[in-house]
From TrEMBL:
Coiled coil: none
Protein name: Xyloglucan endotransglucosylase/hydrolase
Active-site residues from the entry: E104 (nucleophile), E108 (proton donor)
A biological-process GO annotation: xyloglucan metabolic process
Superkingdom assignment: Eukaryota
Organism: Parasponia andersonii (Sponia andersonii)
Length: 288
């Protein structure tokens, strides 16, 4: 348990160690920021680097990862999800470190039968421990057009947002004994894969391979972030507005939007699942 505020400690480290130019990734060429990691040709970057597409067929899915590791950041990506009958498929978009005590921040989009809503599944892992799932329906069709999915990760909290609307907040409660991702650099990953053993209605609805190939598309990546290199994090800037995300909190309007989403579109919250936690809810649930 930390004796000092973890936020203050990290902010001190930030001010002393971080130098150089603020890390801002351009949305113009995804080739510069990402590499295809698997899929045997099923993943492609087209339009001079402006568009990345993952595809899934019965033989294989596909995936990519960022070329850069980050330690804190405000990450934006526009996604257009698999249209039509996407039951059984999962489009995962997340940040993750390596090792047995890894940290991870997850967006996962669970496929559906035509006409049914996608489920947006979120999770946070710290020091290898997850089981912090919250799930949402979206208030729009995520397959009809691109929408922006964002992760704000700073020493104070992690905020998941959709088109600028916050849907989930995970506070840094390390001073209360709850581990928080703050020491391990993470890469950005995404994959499109078959999970029909659990993804749609708990595995009751299987993937219809006659609909394959399934395709999800990505564009307009932007990272205002601290880049990890040679054991140090670099994210300084001469412009205070450029790194305002590092200490950003939700204002009253943001809190209202968060409450609106959670009241109207949240369909699962681990902090209210008494059957799953008969001995008591995780510690952070009483402090959220």
């Amino acid at each position: 348990m930390a004796s000092l505020s973890s936020t203050n400690s990290v902010l001190l480290l930030f001010s002393v160690v971080v130098i150089g130019s603020f890390a801002v990734s351009s949305a113009s060429d995804l080739n510069k920021d990402f590499q295809i990691t698997w899929g045997d040709g099923r993943a492609k970057i087209d339009n001079n680097g402006e568009l990345l597409a993952l595809s899934l067929d019965k033989a294989s899915g596909s995936g990519f990862e960022s070329k850069t590791e980050y330690l804190f950041g405000h990450i934006d990506m526009q996604l257009k999800l698999v249209p039509g009958n996407s039951a059984g498929t999962v489009t995962a978009y997340y940040l993750s470190s390596k090792g047995s005590t890894w940290d991870e921040i997850d967006f996962e989009f669970l496929g559906n039968l035509s006409g049914d809503p996608y489920i947006l599944h979120t999770n946070v892992f710290s020091q290898g421990k997850g089981n912090r799932e919250q799930q949402f329906y979206l208030w729009f069709d995520p397959t009809a057009d691109f929408h922006t999915y964002s992760i704000l990760w700073n020493p104070q909290h992690i905020v998941f947002s959709v088109d600028g609307t916050p849907i989930r907040k995970f506070k840094n409660l390390e001073s209360k004994g709850v581990p928080y991702p703050k020491n391990q650099p993470m890469r950005i990953y995404s994959s499109l894969w078959n999970a029909d053993d659990w993804a749609t209605r708990g595995g009751l609805v299987k993937t219809d391979w006659s609909q394959a190939p399934f395709t999800a598309s990505y564009r307009n990546f932007k990272a205002n972030a601290c880049v990890w290199s040679s054991g140090s994090s670099y994210c300084g800037s001469n412009s205070p507005s450029s790194n305002s995300w590092f200490s950003q909190e939700l204002d009253s309007a943001g809190e209202e939007k968060l409450n609106w989403v959670q009241k109207n579109y949240m369909i699962y919250n681990y902090c209210t699942d008494a059957k799953r936690f008969p001995q008591g809810f995780p510690q952070e649930c009483s402090m959220a």
